Amino acid sequence: MSVSEQQVQTVADACRARLGDPSSWVPPDEFRRSLALCIIESVQAAGSRYADASTVIDRYRAYRRAHAADPVTDGARELLRTFEEAGSSDQWAGKVGNYKRRYSDSAAPLRAAEIQRTAERLHTLRVDSVGDLLDATRDGHAYADLHDAWVESTGAPDDTTWRHLMLLAGIADQKHAAASDDFVRSALASASCESGPSAEILTAAAATLGVEPSSLEHAVQRWKCAHSDTYDTVA
Predict the structure, then answer these.
(1) Segments forming the whole domain that contains residue 68
(2) How far apart, in whole angstroms, are the C-alpha atoms of residue 2 and residue 143?
(3) Which residues are CB-contacts of 179 (< 8 A; sequence separation ≥ 6)?
(4) Tens of pLDDT along 49-100?
(5) Under DSSP, is residue 193 helix (H, G, I), strand (E, B) or coil?
(6) By the 8 A CB rule, do 41 and 54 touch?
(7) 91: in domain
(8) What torsion do the CA atoms of 41, 44, 135, 153 make, to the nearest 10 degrees?
(9) Of 91, 151, 85, nearest to 118 (Cα)?
(10) Based on the structure, what is the number of domains in the chain?
(11) Is 231 inside any structural domain?
């Protein structure tokens, strides 16, 4: 089935408005190389705007690259080391989470304490890398312990942040697959545009944006994970 230029342009415009400049999107493989990035975004996005979580990720990456030229592959232990370097979670929020950011009264508060506590719990369970996380999800007892530790340390009242973590780590979920369809339908509906085949429209929108379809789909799924109505804003 062919799709119309209006449908494609409408979805492409929604992508720019909701997801930001495509040049700022973090590639899926960067998350899958770094458990630290997975922890930071999935915890920070809880009760926050997606843009806030993305900003913290960008500033953490900039901070780490300023201290080491290699790509960021930090695990839970390396993430905890940045808290040790900063001195406390409050200082981490200023030195790392807001790296080189000019002061602003309107800046969203960072969930630094939850990020630190979560990294500590995962490290205690010997989950230090995305590979360790994947291994734990394949074992019933380890999965239960990991899930319970995650819920307790993040303070999230449901599994929204857990599903966000699974997405970033590359673990498939039916809700993730449905996110792209929901995104396309909502974009078209908000512009009073006729609906159409989501997969084809999203692929065409990716071409319009100059990105790979897989990168756009991942960005959409990240955005959807951070826009759940199942919990209230948490500072």
Answers:
(1) 5-225
(2) 43
(3) 220, 221, 224, 225
(4) 566 778 888 889 999 988 886 788 999 999 999 999 999 999 998 888 877 6
(5) coil
(6) yes
(7) yes
(8) 170
(9) 151
(10) 1
(11) no
What whole-number distance in Å separates Cα of residue 98 and Cα of residue 177? Answer: 32
Q: In terms of C-beta density within 10 A (0-12 exposed, 13-18 middle, 19 or more buried), how is residue 13 classed?
A: middle
User: What is the end-to-end Cα distance of the chain in Å, rounded?
Assistant: 46
Is residue 234 a part of any domain in this protein?
no
Q: H or E segment at 75?
A: none
Which phi and psi (to 5°) does residue 195 adopt? Answer: -70, 165
Asked if residue 20 has pLDDT above 80, the reply is: yes
Q: At 162, is the secondary structure helix, strand, or coil?
A: helix
Structure tokens at 129: 């890398």
Q: CA-to-CA distance for 231 and 158, rounded, in angstroms?
A: 8
CB 198 within 8 A of CB 185: yes
Residue 15 tokens read as: 């992508």
Tokens 């001195």 — which residue? Answer: 87
Whether 30 shows a pLDDT value over 90: the answer reads: yes
216, 205 Cβ separation under 8 angstroms:
yes
